[in-house]
């Protein structure tokens, strides 16, 4: 319940009988009245967001808004504007002095709106009450086009997941066509890709000095369109790599696949080339990314004065599901060097790991313990991958020259320091907090990183201690891991470790649980219909998981999303690194057939499984699947659904 005292606009927020006092001005303004309460008659920057405003470091618009505020600029947010009516939401704040910033939100709107089968979803986790319908399809383009019609002379900067992953020619699964850079359709003036703190601070610094927006052409980690015949902006430090044009990609799928190898490699380099791509009469220019954020830089982003709560405006509209999932969680690092073929994390957050300091993490833990509704349980100490904290190259100069998309596939790089000691220290320090009963790890764990070559190595790099600490103290009944498949060939295409690593980790997990008297489960995630996967592969997957005692209940069908190797293969039929053909199922019937093997234990599928496997000469697999399982009569594990397109916080029970 929220109450407002009209005299000084203090918000009294009640949680289960306890209160916290906030002024309405502790949030960034989202209404004209809130702007006036600050004594402002003009705004420097106005942010448009497809998500409801939650003032928390896990929500991009809050981070960007707080950074703009910290640089001394006057900023307001227009969350989830109504794009259907007379556009009053886009006009209510007036014209900003410098620019509009536009983001579709924490998810690509098309992933937010549609399932892998292209069925419309009935909810939206980033909207109060979880209600759908508060953002348009292709939201960045829709918002920007409206702003350009209303304020044609005001620059628009786009960013966030949708803009970042659609910055170059890309395949759009939902319209089933190849699309140009989002800059073309949206009409935006500048695109900030990836995590936007570093380019944003540089943009603001230059604009404060009076540099005109039209001159912001050499800022790293930005992209823009210019006339194709115009010379490139000068930067002596950058080499330029020209990609095949959008039109060439339209005419030849193999050319499109070849393009992506360069795009992925340059996205992951510490010292990358500038990319250009001809699109009609325009030239797309993508400046190289900044180097990985330092500990000081990432701390500065997380330590901004967030209220860590949704704006009081939403008090009567219901809880925001995405916020409820992460309100008592801590994100300790960004980036992922796994390079999984179906995942967009490295394309947006980078391959290198940017880790927060221990002091910053413990400061956030302390803030959480002060929340009135905190009952002693931290829901997650994690990141994109739970156990990559503080990992980096032993010799940075080797990393500076590296073009590999993954540091751990096909094998763990000899230059990668995979010590888990710093992470174990964080776990133990949080566990020692007097107000913390349990601190869970709900993010997915890379089990291949936990396993050492020998017992001696496990002691040296802290992995044995880490697994013991993790399983004994930080599992809320279920631990998430992601083998994704069992087929060695499919796993190779996925850039995932062999399934034997899962067997080994499961043995250790079960042994520790037995020793500690804990009734806990491993929750492995699997994907069907991934490029390279066929009926026989899925049947083998079912046989292997059955032998381990699992019954798969909720799993994920492969969803092609922009800026992944797997999506390029899905559309083009070629692997971008080898240019060799890769067979991929595409029809709804083929996808459903693969998906059925997850549910071999359902009576309605038994006859179909027998007939299908008999046809391909694998009656032996049908026998193994359909005969009674005597080895695990009671041991069955229910698997939770996996979203494979992005990092998204997941809800935990908060109890063992």
Briefly summarize what is shown:
The protein is of the alpha/beta class and 656 residues long. It is 35% helix and 16% strand.
Write the topology of this structure:
Layout: E1 2-5, E2 10-15, E3 18-23, H1 32-37, E4 45-49, E5 54-55, H2 60-70, E6 75-79, H3 88-91, E7 99-103, H4 109-113, H5 139-150, E8 156-159, H6 160-165, E9 170-172, E10 177-179, H7 182-186, E11 190-192, H8 197-208, E12 222-227, E13 240-242, H9 246-251, H10 253-268, E14 274-279, E15 282-286, H11 295-302, E16 309-310, H12 321-326, E17 329-331, E18 333-334, H13 345-349, E19 354-355, H14 358-369, E20 377-378, E21 380-382, E22 392-393, H15 396-401, E23 416-417, H16 421-431, E24 438-439, H17 447-450, H18 455-460, H19 463-473, E25 478-484, H20 488-494, H21 499-516, E26 521-528, H22 535-547, E27 556-557, H23 565-572, H24 588-596, H25 603-615, H26 619-626
Parallel strand pairs: 4-6, 4-7, 7-8, 8-11, 13-14, 17-21, 20-24, 25-26, 26-27
Antiparallel strand pairs: 1-2, 2-3, 5-16, 9-10, 11-12, 12-15, 14-15, 18-19, 22-23
Characterize the structure shown.
With 656 residues, this protein is of the alpha/beta class. The protein is 35% helix and 16% strand. It folds into 2 domains: 25-286, Cobalamin-binding domain (Rossmann fold), CATH 3.40.50; 328-571, Alpha-Beta Horseshoe (pyruvate-formate lyase- activating enzyme). The strands form 9 sheets. Strands 6-4-7-8-11-12-15-14-13 form a 9-stranded mixed sheet, sandwiched between helices. Strands 1-2-3 form a 3-stranded antiparallel sheet, with no helix packed on it. A hairpin with a 4-residue loop joins strand 9 (170-172) and strand 10 (177-179). The longest helix has 18 residues, at 499-516. The two termini are 30 Å apart.
